[in-house]
Automatic annotation (TrEMBL):
Protein's organism: Deinococcus taklimakanensis
Designated name of the protein: ABC transporter ATP-binding protein
Top-level taxonomy: Bacteria, Thermotogati, Deinococcota, Deinococci, Deinococcales
Nucleotide-binding listed as a keyword: yes
SUPFAM superfamilies in the record: P-loop containing nucleoside triphosphate hydrolases (SSF52540)
Domain ABC transporter: from-to ranges: 2-249
GO molecular function, one term: ATP binding
The entry's keywords: ATP-binding, Nucleotide-binding, Transport
InterPro entries given in the database record: AAA+_ATPase, ABC_AA/LPS_Transport, ABC_transporter-like_ATP-bd, BCA_ABC_TP_C, P-loop_NTPase
Pfam families: ABC_tran, BCA_ABC_TP_C
Length: 264
């Protein structure tokens, strides 16, 4: 689905991401993990077009998207959520979801001011797209509610619905379980599995190792901006370089899954 080749970015003299070569396979869940400051969110910002790399290439389904702007990357089928739930609490759940569909509309400012036929057609399309996305995340019955009235899990689902409204093939989730309790986390894992079963490819940055180990098909491990390991959850759990990065060499592979929950 997506390949990065020698990807890197430098801020002044600091290499936030350096020489990362990896793949996000189609139809799978890939987790990007690493200690705090490892470059995980920066990596997401690069592949979603928020940052321009200083080295390397990003290839989506055979097409080079390295220099595309954010909205162009979204237009190619890549959508993302953010660490902080970016919803409009005063708007309805449906109105929030509709915002994500705007990247697919054609009406401009003049159309909106004059309420042209194109504007009305786009609005109807956004409403239909928003309802479809809410159905996929289990919020169709709450479409009329204020988004701010939902639980933390509900607001996270609204954020995912906003991303789904852009009709992505690759969905990037940045710490989707942040702030959730264990029950909400389990519910989120089930939703992500459903989305992948429905045809999406998912990549996620996550600190909750219980979620990562129970959900991911493949894991990429970053440390100081470099890729130090990749493979299945079991392969990564027992990788000496990963144990060293997380635990400073003071534990063995059998402790990775437990210690990673609190130290990741």
């Amino acid at each position: 689905m997506l390949d990065v080749q020698g990807l890197g970015i430098r801020f002044g003299g600091n290499h936030a991401v350096r020489d990362v070569t990896a793949s996000l396979p189609a139809g799978q869940i890939t987790a990007i993990i690493g200690p705090n400051g490892a470059g995980k969110s920066t990596f997401f910002n690069l592949i979603s077009g928020f940052y321009q790399p200083t080295s390397g290439r990003i290839v989506l389904e055979g097409q080079d998207i390295t220099r595309l702007k954010t909205h162009e990357v979204v237009g190619r089928g890549v959508a993302r959520t953010f660490q902080t739930t970016t919803i409009y609490r005063e708007l309805s759940v449906l109105e929030n979801a509709m915002i994500g569909h705007r990247v697919r509309t054609k009406a401009g400012l003049l159309d909106a001011l004059l309420r042209t036929g194109r504007e009305r057609q786009d609005e109807a399309g956004s409403r239909a797209g928003g309802l479809r996305a809410l159905e996929r995340v289990g919020l169709a019955g709450q479409a009329h509610l204020s988004a701010g009235a939902l639980s933390q899990e509900g607001q996270k689902r609204v954020g995912i619905a906003m991303a789904l409204c852009s009709d992505p093939r690759l969905l990037l989730l940045d710490e989707p379980a942040a702030g959730m309790n264990p029950e909400e986390t389990v519910n989120l894992m089930a939703l992500i599995r459903e989305l992948v079963a429905g045809g999406l490819t998912v990549a996620l940055v996550e600190h909750k190792m219980s979620l990562v180990m129970g959900l991911a098909d493949r894991i990429l491990v970053l440390h100081h901006g470099q890729l130090i390991a990749q493979g299945t959850p079991e392969e990564v759990r027992t990788d000496p370089a990963v144990i060293e990065a997380y635990l400073g060499g003071h534990a063995h592979g059998g402790q990775m899954g437990q210690a990673g929950v609190s130290h990741a």
